[in-house]
Amino acid sequence: MIYTQGQVIRASLTDLPLIYHYGIISINEEGNTMVMHNTYEDSVLIESIEDFLVGRDIVEVKDSNLSDLSYEELSERFSNCYGEFDTINYNCEHFIDCMRGKELHSEQLYRITAITTISLVLYYLYTRD
């Protein structure tokens, strides 16, 4: 597959295929395809596409408003979006939104919260006397 600067990559976790991980494609000065992303193991980092895909399968790669930026401009945004990983407040989806200059949100977090809340309510209704 041919990647271009600023694309958003969405990959499913091999062990948890309903959980997605997101990153931004960057092409460094040497022409290597890299991915900027935020993980619970390392927080915000840049690594090769090959390393990014260990334990993950590509679901989607799409263009974004970052596609017109140079490597230097993308790197500057990366520096401005550097932060420690936090599942609730700064996960991989939040990082992508930060890079794109958008309000931070996480669709996966919203879904998990909704499913958990509904499950707890149903459990309560089922087990009450």
Word description of this protein:
The relative contact order is 0.18. The chain has a five-stranded antiparallel sheet. The protein is elongated and about 65 Å long. The model has no long low-confidence stretch (mean pLDDT 92). Strand 1 and strand 2 form a beta hairpin. It has 129 residues and is an alpha+beta fold. It has four helices and five strands; from the N terminus they run ββββαβααα.
Share of residues in strands: 25-35%
Q: Numbering strands along the chain, what is their spatial order in the largest sheet?
A: 4-3-2-1-5
Q: Return the average pLDDT rounded to an integer.
A: 92
Number of individual domains: 1
Point out poorly predicted stretches.
Answer: none
- Number of beta-strand segments: 5
From the alpha carbons, calculate the radius of gyration and give it in angstroms: 17 Å
- Overall geometry comes to elongated
H and E order: EEEEHEHHH
Largest sheet: 5 strands, antiparallel
- Termini separation: 58 Å
Helix content: 25-40%
Tally of separate helices: 4
User: Structural class of the secondary structure composition?
Assistant: alpha+beta
